TrEMBL record:
Keywords: DNA-binding, Transcription, Transcription regulation
Domain HTH lysR-type: 1-59
Record-linked PROSITE patterns: HTH_LYSR
Classification lineage: Bacteria, Pseudomonadati, Pseudomonadota, Alphaproteobacteria, Acetobacterales
PANTHER family, per database record: HTH-TYPE TRANSCRIPTIONAL ACTIVATOR TTDR-RELATED (PTHR30537:SF5), HTH-TYPE TRANSCRIPTIONAL REGULATOR (PTHR30537)
Keyword set includes ATP-binding: no
Protein name as catalogued: LysR family transcriptional regulator
InterPro entries: LysR-type_TF_proteobact-type, LysR_HTH_N, LysR_subst-bd, WH-like_DNA-bd_sf, WH_DNA-bd_sf
Family under the similarity heading: Belongs to the LysR transcriptional regulatory family.
Top-rank taxon: Bacteria
Amino acid sequence: MDRFDAMAVLLAVVEAGSLSAAARRLRAPLTTVSRKVAELERHLGTQLLVRSNRRVVLTDAGQAYVAATRRILEQVEEAERQAAGEYRAPRGELHVTAPMLFGQRHLLPVALAFLAEQPEITLRLMLADQQVSLADEHIDVALRIGHLADSALVATRVGTVRRVICASPAYLARRGVPLMPEDLARHDGINFQGFAASPEWRYRRDSHSVMEAKPRLAVNTTEAAIQAALAGVGIVRLLSYQVAEEVKDGRLRVVLEAFAPEPLPVSLVYAPAEILPLKVRSFLDFTIPRLRARMAEMEGGL
C-alpha cells in the first residue's frame, strides 16, 4: 500500500463528501477509491469513515487522522515545491481563478503576456462566477470582486467596478428614460444572477426600498443578459466591466448613474505565507500594475 497515496485519497473523499464524488474529482474508478480507503483502515486497525449511499461521516478516530493527514500532506507538498526550486526561480504550475467575463476580457490577456515571459511556469486558469475555495481547489491567486469575507487572505486592490443599470437606445426611445428609481416600476426588466452571493443594491440619494423593473426575462449568464438588453427586451443591472464595450460603442446606455451604489473593490487575493513561491510573487508583480492600468482605462471610458 502506498500510504501517502491512500492518505490523499481519504482526504479527497472527506472534502468531496462521498466516495463517488471523490472518484470523479480524482478521475479514478470508484472501486479503486473504496479499496484504498479500506486498505488504509485495515492498516490502521480502525474505522475512519461511516459510509452511506449519499455521503460519508468521519468517526472520532477518522477526524483526528484526517486532521493529521492534512498537515502531513501540506508539509510534503511544501517540501516538494522547495526541492523543485519554486523558491529559487519562477517555475511550476500556477493555479489562478477569476470571474468568467472579467477573466476572459482582462485577466487572460495579462496572463498570456506573463506566460510569454515565464517559460518555466504553466498556468491553470479557472474562470467561474461562483467563488471557489483557495484551499479546497489548491488555488494560488484569486481575483475577487466585492468586499472580502475571508480576512485570513492577503488582498491587493487593483481597481473598482461600478454597478450599472443600462438598456439599449432603441428600448429607451420606445419606453422613455427613467430619471428616478421609482420610474423603474414602469419598465420591463431582465433578471440576472451572476454570482452565488450578489452584492446588495442600495441606491444612493434615495431612502426608499430597492425599486425593480417588471421582470420580463430571467437568465443565468452574463452573455444572455447582455444580448437580451442589446435586443431591446428591457433594462438590466450588471457590473460596469461586463458592458464596458457595449456602452463605449453606444449599443447600451447607462441610466440612473447618480443613484448607483458605491463602486465595488476588485482585488487579487492569496493565502499568507512567510515566503511566497517565486511563481506567485512574479505573477503578482507582473499582473497588478497591468490590471490597474486596464481597469483605469476601462472605467475612464464609461
